[in-house]
């Protein structure tokens, strides 16, 4: 997921970029409104917007962003007045957090606004009669909990198998990260996002087919059918 951070304070921006990077997100930063509008693109999936910008009021910038894109906008500012929150939401913001905030809360809010774009229950029902799934020489046996590559068993950890099993139930369908975390770790706690990324990388390495599990930007992962 690519997050556009609009923040003129270097210290705040650097800390935020470091935290989001550790949480598995790609970030770009704009220091003012003009730069933000230039950097806003089709691959921008969330905007974190500070209101106190040097060239334009953040509320006005929010309106401009909303006029050209439906990207989720989260206002993050030191302005705690209720009227400011109302102005921000009426300008098109999807959420509003007041500085200083807990970065874990911010992460949860990012996941919440993206979840509204990619609902967890949007997946079709998994086929009940498919115990074995095959793709590109990879055989996933859901009953025996075994993965074969060209007939050779692959040693996966329990979590690794659980991840590929969820993906195998929906071949060719993008499975949201939230859905994978919920099914594999039995929780909605988004600090597992980085762990999911590490496990997927390990599965790709062990299977030897990096393209088998495709990263779907802003959504999750898909097993190539």
TrEMBL record:
The protein, known as: Sensory transduction protein RegX3
InterPro entries: CheY-like_superfamily, OmpR/PhoB-type_DNA-bd, Sig_transdc_resp-reg_receiver, WalR-like, WH-like_DNA-bd_sf
Keywords: DNA-binding, Phosphoprotein, Transcription, Transcription regulation
Sequence ranges assigned to domain Response regulatory in this UniProt record: 2-114
SMART domains: REC, Trans_reg_C
Gene source species: Microbacterium suwonense
Molecular function terms from GO: DNA binding
Domain OmpR/PhoB-type: 130-225
DNA-binding region per UniProt: 130-225
PROSITE patterns: OMPR_PHOB, RESPONSE_REGULATORY
Keyword match DNA-binding: yes
Pfam families associated with the record: Response_reg, Trans_reg_C
Chain positions with 4-aspartylphosphate modification: 50
Keyword DNA-binding: yes
């Amino acid at each position: 997921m690519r997050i556009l951070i609009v923040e003129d304070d270097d210290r705040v921006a650097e800390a935020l970029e470091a935290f989001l990077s550790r949480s598995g997100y790609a970030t770009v930063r704009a220091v003012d409104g003009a730069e933000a509008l230039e950097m806003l693109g089709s691959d921008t999936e969330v905007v974190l917007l500070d209101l106190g910008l040097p060239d334009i009021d953040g509320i006005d910038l929010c309106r401009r962003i909303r006029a050209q894109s439906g990207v989720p906008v989260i206002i993050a500012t030191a302005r705690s007045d209720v009227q400011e929150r109302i102005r921000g939401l009426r300008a098109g913001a999807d959420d509003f957090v007041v500085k200083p905030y807990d970065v874990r809360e911010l992460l949860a809010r990012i996941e919440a606004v993206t979840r509204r774009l990619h609902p967890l229950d949007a997946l079709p029902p998994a086929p009940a009669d498919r115990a074995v799934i095959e793709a590109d020489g990879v055989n996933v046996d859901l009953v025996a909990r075994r993965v074969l590559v060209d007939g050779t068993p692959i040693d996966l950890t329990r979590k690794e198998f659980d991840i590929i099993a969820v993906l195998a139930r929906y071949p060719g369908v993008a499975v949201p990260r939230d859905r994978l975390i919920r099914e594999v770790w039995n929780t909605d706690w988004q600090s597992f996002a980085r762990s999911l990324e590490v496990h997927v990388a390990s599965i790709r390495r062990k299977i030897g087919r990096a393209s088998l599990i495709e990263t779907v930007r802003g959504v999750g992962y898909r097993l190539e059918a």
